[in-house]
Amino acid sequence: MPRFLFVVMVCLISQACLAEAKPLSEKTTYHVTSPDKAIVVSVTDDQGQLRYSVTRNNLQVIQPSLLGLRFAEQAGFDHDLKIVGSNQASVSSSWEQPWGERRVVRDNHNELSLKVERGQPKQVFNLRVRAFDDGVGFRYEVPEQKGLGNLAITEEITEFNMDENATVWWIPARKWNRYEYLYNKTSVDQMETAHTPVTMKLSNGVHVSLHEAALVNYSGMSIEHRRGANLVANLAPRADGALVKVSVPFNTPWRTIQIAPDAVGLINSDLILNLNEPNKMGDVSWFKPGKYIGIWWQQHIKDRTWGNDGIHAATTEATIEYMDFAAKHGFDGVLVEGWNIGWDGDWYNNGDVFSFTKTYDDFDIEKVAEHGRTVGVRLIGHHETSGNLTNYENQIDAAFDLYEENDVAIVKTGYVADAGKLKRVDEKGIVRYEFHDGQESIAHHQRVIKKAAEHKIAINAHEPVKDTGLRRTYPNWVSREGARGQEFNAWGVPPNGPNHVSNLVFTRMLSGPMDYTAGAFDLRPSERPPVTEQMGRHDKRSRIEHTLAKELSLYVGIYSPIQMAMDLPENYEARMDAFQFIKDVPADWDKSIALSGEVGEFLVIARQDRNSSDWYIGAHTNEKARTVSVKLDFLDAGTYEAQIYRDGSQADYETNPYDLVIEKRDVSAVDVLSFDLGRSGGAAVRLVKK
Ligand code: NOJ
Ligand code: CA
Q: CA–CA separation, 153 vs 678, rounded Å?
């Protein structure tokens, strides 16, 4: 065998190098190493194909995996490839989040940028790779050049060849219910095409999450299982043929591989945010993190209706009552759904008829806003589109004008429509049906975010595209759904079940904030007598399969800068002792530390309030009762009063979900708190500096 087959060239850190012209069969390998030197990414151009691999502490995380793109009309970046130049750089910096899980984010990484040339026809692209202590990101960058103008991408061939013995937590992609599925836990070869983040535990215990960062002007990437442990990027198709339409120059989103020695390391990682562009919106101090209540749950449990085809929920009087309750208990906002014309009948399939400015006769938006001003509470707006992007965009100026005039600072949007059924009328007047993570839907969200910012409005999107850290660049995109939230416990059969949030925090939550809407105090709403026979109730199997203490713990466990107390005021009035925790807990943090946990099993997390020296702890478990202990060594010196809301000794999500103990004790940084969590139980703690 010729000697040159074995030649491997390694470029040293900070050295720019140019490979000499040599036969395609001669491979060149480049490496980039994380600042702590544990993670090594290698890229090689063997036999005209580009491959990368990743190790952590010399153990394989990603086996050699193909890289490249294919186009409809031009030759693809998938053959005849050669690395012709490289650059290395290092960054060690930090930046501040205007709001978030932590104020200061460290960005410490080494970067390798490779210039890759295709021989015939001659064309170039760059592969940019960043190695952090908590994982890897890479993207393709296609510069302006002759011969490439508009491109239709037909395939991204990026592979992720994993450990064959990995365990994977995943939800299916391209299925009708978008991201709203219960998680599967399977071996890697049993995985189907899945939405990211996809979380894995390798056989050596290392945890990995595959996702993407900065998803703009592209289609969302799902992970397709081909065979064995061979996984491949799978882009959501556009309705008009290609997967993505771009023109040069363009960059793909970052393909991200978070890597941690244990499950909580994934939660403590800031890799996704670090791979997004800095804030492009400037001062966003007009967005205030906070808590809200809403005319919402009563619709889901069939006490009231959105439209006039039952008992209309969104009346002026009801909203004023909610505002008074909010003001009395320190909430900033009241969400009102069903105030605008379009809800009667089959609203799910009637996106064409939604008006975003015309109110039902019994809802006086000016009067409500005026009352809000007097009591210091704002309306939280709601725009359900039923997946009709064009109908919404046609009215968006007037819609946001109306809300701005009425002091609305946060709008919840909604895109209820089956996957692949977002309606769009294109430039030629042709009706297209797009995926929620397709390129056109992503472009729509960008337009909405920018338009909202002009009105100093923040957005909380339901049935959204998944989060990819864009809140760093557009900090008014404050929260979203994009998973099964509390609503499924009102009408889902089966409901979310005892282990769902233990899955969520290690999967969906790695992508960014979620409007999960915790705070259920009546855990069996379907057992309430029906308000009218005609409205009835949902199936009695729909229920919240948590203890009350676990519901409280989720205000710490599931991060969002806007947190809802979703239950009916009457249910809170009945348990003011437990409600005190929701009143106290903040929605904006200075620090967050995931302390212990296992995917799908349990989590213990501590967060420090951004506006005081108080700390909070949230602990929850799946269907298994367990004891968790929390070392308080994250506290500052001095004494804290621990205000503890925990499962009582009989607490059990099936037999005794309301067994809650509320107690106080003094603690300091040398103490360890221990909690016996019941089945699907939890604990929530406020630590107040004395
Ligand atoms: C689904 C959303 O997730 C829910 O919160 C909302 O109430 C309904 N759509 C109606 O817009
Ligand atoms: Ca939903």
A: 51
Ligand nearest to the CA of 483: 2
Query: In the prediction, which pLDDT does 469 show?
Result: 98
User: Sign of the CA dihedral 451, 455, 458, 460?
Assistant: negative
Looking at the fold, whether 257 and 343 belong to one and the same domain comes out as: no
496 within domain boundaries: yes
Q: Which of 335, 348, 416, 517 to mutate to test the pocket of ligand 1 (most atoms within 8 A of CB)?
A: 416
| Residue 402 main-chain phi, psi, to 5 deg | -60, -45
Distance 463 CA to ligand 2 centre (A): 5
Residues of the domain holding 499: 290-388+396-419+446-544+561-581
Torsion of CA 494, 498, 500, 502, to 10 degrees: 180
641 an active-site residue?
no
Domain count, the chain: 2
- Residue 679 within any structural domain of the chain: no
Ligand number, closest to the Cα atom of 336: 1
pLDDT tens digits, 194-241? 999 999 999 999 999 999 999 999 999 999 999 999 999 999 999 998
Which residue owns the Cα nearest ligand 1 atom 10? Answer: 384
- Spatial separation of the C-alpha atoms in residues 384 and 403, rounded to whole Å: 14
Above pLDDT 70, what percent of the chain?
96
Give the active site residue among 155, 487, 545, 551. 487
Does position 370 have pLDDT exceeding 50, yes or no?
yes
The CATH number of the domain holding residue 150 is 2.70.98.10
- Over 90: is that where the pLDDT of 6 sits? no
Q: How far is the CA of 102 from the centre of ligand 2 (A)?
A: 27
Q: Is the CB of 480 under 6 A from ligand 1?
A: no
Whether the per-residue pLDDT at 3 is higher than 60: the answer is: no
Relative to the CA of 382, which ligand 1 atom is closest? 11
